[in-house]
Amino acid sequence: MTKTTYATGAALLQALLLGACDAPARDQPAAANAADPAAAPAATVPVSGPKRIVLAFGDSLYAGYSLSRGQSLPDAIQARLRAHGVDATLVNAGVSGDTTADGRRRLAYTLDRMTPAPDLVMLGLGGNDVLRQLSPAETRANMTAMLDELAKRRIPVVLTGMLAPPNLGPDYAAAFNAIWPDLARRYDAPLDPFILQGVLGNRQLMLPDGVHPNARGVGRVADRLAPLVERRLAALPGSATAPQRP
Questions:
Q1: Is 236 exposed, middle or buried (0-12, 13-18, 19+ CB in 10 A)?
Q2: Which percentage of the chain shows pLDDT scores above 90?
Q3: Pick from 59, 77, 13: which is nearest to 225 by CA?
Q4: Where is the signal peptide (predicted)?
Q5: How many domains does the chain divide into?
Q6: Is 84 considered catalytic here?
Q7: Which helix (H) or strand (E) holds 47?
Q8: Is residue 94 situated within a structural domain?
Q9: Tens digit of pLDDT for each residue in 167-180?
Q10: Residue in 36, 129, 192, 212 annotated catalytic
C-alpha cells in the first residue's frame, strides 16, 4: 500500500481504538523494532505428540510487515506452541495488502500445493477491506467462500477477526463487525474477535505507521492466540487429548 493509504489506515485504526479498545500508554514514545524476550519463550516441556502443520493465511498482520525474519506472528505462535511441547510447524502464507477477495483467489491454489495438507488453517483477512471501505457484504461473501473451501477439504479453522472504526458509521460497523462472530458460529470455528486487541494505539507495541505491530506487539498478540491454536490442535483426531470414539 502507499504512504497515503497507510496514513488513512492509521487514522481509521485510531478511530477504532477510541471506539472499541482500551490500550494503555498511547502517549509514550515509540519503542524500537526489536524482538521482545517473550517472542521466543524457553521450552517448558519437550516437544512431542503428532506433527502438525498450521497454515497461517492472511495479510500483512500475518506476513510480518517491516519485521525481521523470524519475527512474524506465525513465527511467534510456533515458538509458543513448541515451548508447550506441541510439535507444530506454522507455514506463513500472509501477503501484505491482501483483501478478502485476494485471499479468496489464492486459497485453493495455496492448499493444492501443500503436501501434506495442513492440519489447521488460521484465517486472518479483512483489515484491508475496512481500510478501503469495501462493502461488508463483499467481505462476508469472500470469507464465506474461503470457509466453504476449507470445509470441503475438511480442514478446521481458527479465525482472527477485524473490527470497523465507528467513524465509518453505525450501519457499516454493525454489518462489518458481525461477519466474524456469525461465521465462527456457522462453521464451528474458534474466534479471536479482534487481532489487534491490546496493541493498537500503544506506541511501544506498534510500528511508526500506527497500523502494524512491532516485534513486541506481535509477541503480545501471539500470547493471546497461541492458546487458542493449541486448544484447537489438541481437539484434532490423533491428539492425546482428543475425544476418543467409542
A1: middle
A2: 76
A3: 77
A4: 1-25
A5: 1
A6: no
A7: none
A8: yes
A9: 999 999 999 999 99
A10: 212
Tell me if 23 sits within 8 A of 202, measured CB to CB: yes
Residue 245 covered by a domain: no
Does the pLDDT value for residue 230 go beyond 70?
A: yes
- Domain residues for the domain of 175 are 3-234
Is residue 60 part of the annotated active site? The answer reads: yes
Residue positions counted in the chain: 246
Q: Which of 84, 87, 96, 209 is catalytic?
A: 209
DSSP SS3 for 239: coil
pLDDT tens by residue, 82-132: 999 999 999 999 999 999 999 999 999 999 999 999 999 999 999 999 999
Cell, residue 19: 471506539
CATH code, 191 = 3.40.50.1110
Sheet holding 157-160, edge to edge: 86-94, 48-58, 120-124, 157-160, 191-192
Q: What is the rounded CA–CA span in Å between residue 120 and residue 99?
A: 21
User: How far is it, in rounded angstroms, from Cα 185 to Cα 196?
Assistant: 21
Does residue 243 lie in a domain region?
no
pLDDT tens digits, 54-67: 999 999 999 999 99
**Is 97 in a helix, a strand, or coil?**
coil
Catalytic residue among 59, 60, 98, 192: 60
In a domain, 241, yes or no: no
Is 72 annotated in the active site? no
| Residues 156, 189 contacting (CB under 8 angstroms) | yes
- Return the closest-CA partner of residue 53 out of 28, 24, 74, 80: 74
Q: Where are the alpha helices (DSSP H) in the chain?
A: 3-20, 60-63, 73-83, 100-112, 127-131, 136-152, 170-177, 179-186, 215-234
